Amino acid sequence: MTQGLHLSQKMALQQVLAPQLQQSLALLQTPVLELKALVEQELQQNPVLEEEYPVDRAPDGKSQRDKEVERADPAEPPSDVKFDPATDGEPKVADDFQAEFERLAQMDQEWREYFSEANVPLRAREEEEERRRYMFDSLVAGTSLQEHLLEQVRLSELPEDRYPIAESIIGNIDDNGYLRASVDELAFATNVPADQVAEVLKVIQSFNPPGVGARDLRECLMLQLERADRKDTLEYRIISEHMDLLGKRRFPEIARALGCPVEDVQAAWQRITQLEPRPGRDFSHDDNIYVVPEVFVRKVGDEYVVTANEDAIPHLRISNTYKDLMARPDSSAEVRNYIRERIRAGKFLIKGLQRRQETILNIAREIVKRQREFMEHGRSHLKPMTMAQIAEAVGVHETTVSRAVSGKYIDTPQGVFEMKSFFTSGLSTANGEGVSNASVKELINEMVANEDKKQPLSDEEIVKRLSEKGIMIARRTVAKYRSELNILPSHLRKQY
What we know:
Elements: H1 19-29, H2 32-45, E1 49-51, H3 64-71, H4 97-118, H5 123-138, H6 145-155, H7 163-171, H8 183-190, H9 194-204, H10 217-227, H11 234-241, H12 243-247, H13 251-258, H14 262-272, E2 295-300, E3 303-308, E4 316-318, H15 320-327, H16 333-370, H17 372-377, H18 387-394, H19 398-405, E5 409-412, E6 415-418, E7 426-428, E8 434-436, H20 437-449, H21 459-468, H22 475-484, H23 490-493
Parallel strand pairs: 2-5
Antiparallel strand pairs: 1-4, 2-3, 5-6, 7-8
Helix pairs in contact: 1-16, 6-7, 7-8, 7-9, 8-9, 13-14, 15-16, 16-18, 18-19, 21-22
């Protein structure tokens, strides 16, 4: 058997997307905040693109900026443009493409400087920049829990030779405020006796926020009660002696063990729920999510009007400077080809942004049309709806709808919602109509909120009440929805 190189042919079917189509899909799927950064990047890379600011238009439809461009003779650049004396005042034409490209880049910078000086900033633009500057100036860098604790170490009476131990302990405290290392592990890491580590830990546990440095929930709650001088209370005894039973809400067993009425245990449990199980919660900033709606829904008369958020995306246009540069007789073929290619790419980007806005707007209008009761009454009246239904109504593919609603938000009279949250599966009612699972969850939530706390509703009783409303649902489905709503079972919701 010989070894060597051999040629072979095979046939395969492979889908290849054109670069322009890939860009169009990327624009459709990108949320508005990321899209703004993408457009600004294109403005930096493509010299023929420029941002068009909102201005008042004249009766002829031309903006003030367009008229300024027309008044500027393209054959007569501004006074700060450098001329070559050897060519009788005309810009020098190089023989090779590199020189032409450098000249083009220089002229682009000079024209941009000219327009930035020639155009008077608009009042609307000034107010917008002022609001943005106020917003950025108002943002402050939050202090982490570890930084807060280290600052208290420096202000405490702890000797400086114990600072390394304190820093090691604080370094092992997570964002919730819990110590995730044992005293022996910290003693081994710092190479000091365990009793010294325990002494420093006791000092740190006296810092703010109360309960910080605890090793479990039980110790955390006890530290908070000790700080509040509530060590001799019933809740302190319950936490220190019967934490397991408290977690299972076995109030009668706790009452028998402590020799007190069940009502007192219930009242103590209510006071315990007011304690903070996560002392570092106030220093956690990861839950802050800022969104910008893609579309707005406003009620005008009896109709809901859907408008796109045009202010969040920069408006682009092709610079007239480069159009005039292509028409100049002294421009070489390489320069004209380069500009033509850049203009073609810029136009496709502009059209892609327009198609993106139109697609999202059409989808949003169809959503509002089908979810009018939601706009009127809220989430309990949300109807079941699929992406296939919207795709058929709008005239696009289902995957296009999926891309268009991914990461997009809509501002409605009921609040700001993610667009994909309107697409929910449904359940059948007795009269054959459909009801969304979100509406069913809302009904379950309302039933539990209004139930008799001493006799909470079981899953089977919830099924019966839903069937009375014409909603046919299985008990296991109710249990699933209850779990998703973070509602405890009936025996754990019972109050005495």
